[in-house]
Each structure stands twice: as C-alpha cells, then as structure tokens.
C-alpha cells in the first residue's frame, strides 16, 4: 500500500475526476492518486484548486491537468494496457500524480517567466505552498548516497494543448515510482477470474426436442494467451427416441454433465473472445426408457465475455459428436456473474 511521500507538508488542493473509463476502478484511482501525492482530494472547485481530469477513448487514457497556480494546462495520453490489465488503475493514478508534480515544479524552475501566462494571478500563499511541497517531496525522494548507476530514462513529454506553456522535466522521485510499478506489473502473471451462474439449452440432433437448465461456471485467463473453464450443468426436457420397432416415443429426459475447456483468447475493450476445445461428460436419463446412458466426448467451444467493472456477462456455444448416442449435439449458454 502506498504512503504519503512528504510527512507534514501542506499540499495545494487538488480535485480529481474520472470520466468515461469503464475499464478503470475510479475509487482505486482516487485512492492511489491521493496516497502517491500525499493529500486527500477535494470535490469543490476553487481559484487555487488544481483540476485533474482522466478520460478514455478506445484503449487510450488521457490525463489532463488544469493548474491555476502555474496558470497552464498540460496533458498526457498513453495506453495503460501495455502494462497488463491488472495494472491500469495504478499506472493511471501514478501518471496523474507525476503530471501534477511536474506542473508545480515549474514554479521553482522558472519563477519569473519572460512571457507571463494568461489568467488571474494565484495567491502568494498558494504559490509558496506548491513550491514548498515540491522541494520537500524532491528531498524526501532523493537517495541518501549518490548512485553509481545512471539515472532512469526520462519518460516522453506530455502532449501540450494550444496555448500551453512548456512543461518541466518530470520529478526524479515520480520517475522511480513509475519504473518500479512497471517492473512489478511486468513480472506479475496476468490473471483474471470469473464466476457465473448459467442458463443453458442442449439438443441431441438425432432426437427431436431441446433440454433446458443451468448451472455454474468458473473461468480464468492467464498470461494474456490461455483461458480455461470448469462447469457443472443440469438440463431437462422432452426427447423423441425410436423404440425397438423403430417408432418414435416421447420421453422426459435429464442430463447431468461436467465440462472442461481450454481456449486461446483475445481482448478488445470490455469484451473477451475465446475459441478452443474441451471435454463434456455426463449421464442422460430417459424416464420410462432404457437404463441411463453415460456419455463423454471432445467438444468445440467458442465464447464471449463482456465485463463492466466487477459484473460479467458470458455468451458461449458448444458442439460435439457422441458415438454412444449415435449423433451430434449442440449447446448454448448465457451466464451472469462477477469478476474476482
């Protein structure tokens, strides 16, 4: 867990808003941003309040800082998914904190710009608070002894909007935080779990009728490539099967099955697509019919998951051929659950 970097130092008021970013946990971004900057964000605007706005378009996140103390607006745009889906909120929060610190740092690096910025001048107390905070933050992050290795590379400069002033180089302490976060996330396997309740149907194509039911499924994505899932389903309905004389007879039928699948997957925004294969095995029971039939055979699997924060919606289809039942079968499922 992050801790404030500068003990006892006053921090200029900051307001943070996350807009149109369904893939980000807004509360986590607020919490990590406040902890890394060392302050509690405010919800009220004001003449000395620095506004930070985080917006999303496709896979890109844009962090925009409107700083009334240095009287400029700066922004940075990047793709947080390059660090892994589990790191998005942390990376975005740290990037926002770095951009605020870099904006305030210009108050000390260039206290009297040759071309004064537009807008009403800030109060002297706000300027001094920002300068003091940046000095103490830089001192808290400085190493105790001069390092023998070269300094970490400077990240790309933010994109400036028309009329923006030049942004100073990002603070060394913020750079080290970002580099540590990136190394940590790259060394951690990407894992995404989900648990869903399922409504399903199943048809044995050599007999008329469809069985309906449901069950539960657990699935996991790992390492950005492989997805696997386990489920248990119970389905029942009416089927027609020929008797010994070849006459079709209707029977109440029930299947109890377990399935396991292994797929490759790809992500596109809130959607995850999977394709692969697996095995489904179970028992088919016909009321007033022959003894229960135990069956199991490989299957083809395709599925799609839509994720909205912790809520997930699954759509999946299966198909296979069972020699013991002399026919093919097909199944579809819709699931609703949570991401873990």
Q: What's the quick description here?
A:
The protein is built from 4 helices and 13 strands.
Which features characterize this protein?
alpha+beta; single chain; about 350 residues; 4 helices; Porin; five-stranded mixed sheet; eight-stranded antiparallel barrel
What is the approximate shape?
rod-shaped
Q: Please trace the helix and strand order, writing H or E for each element.
A: EHEEEHHEHEEEEEEEE
The overall pLDDT, averaged over residues, is: 78
Structural class: alpha+beta
Largest sheet: 8 strands, antiparallel, barrel
Approximately how much beta-strand content do the residues carry? 35-45%
Distance between the termini: 20 Å
Number of helices: 4
Q: Domains counted in the coordinates: how many? A: 2
* Number of E-type strands: 13
Uncertain regions: pLDDT < 50 for 5+ in a row?
1-7, 142-152, 163-174, 184-191
Q: What gyration radius follows from the Cα positions, in whole Å?
A: 29 Å
What topology, given as strand order, has the largest sheet? 6-7-8-9-10-11-12-13
Could you estimate the helical fraction of the residues in percent?
10-25%
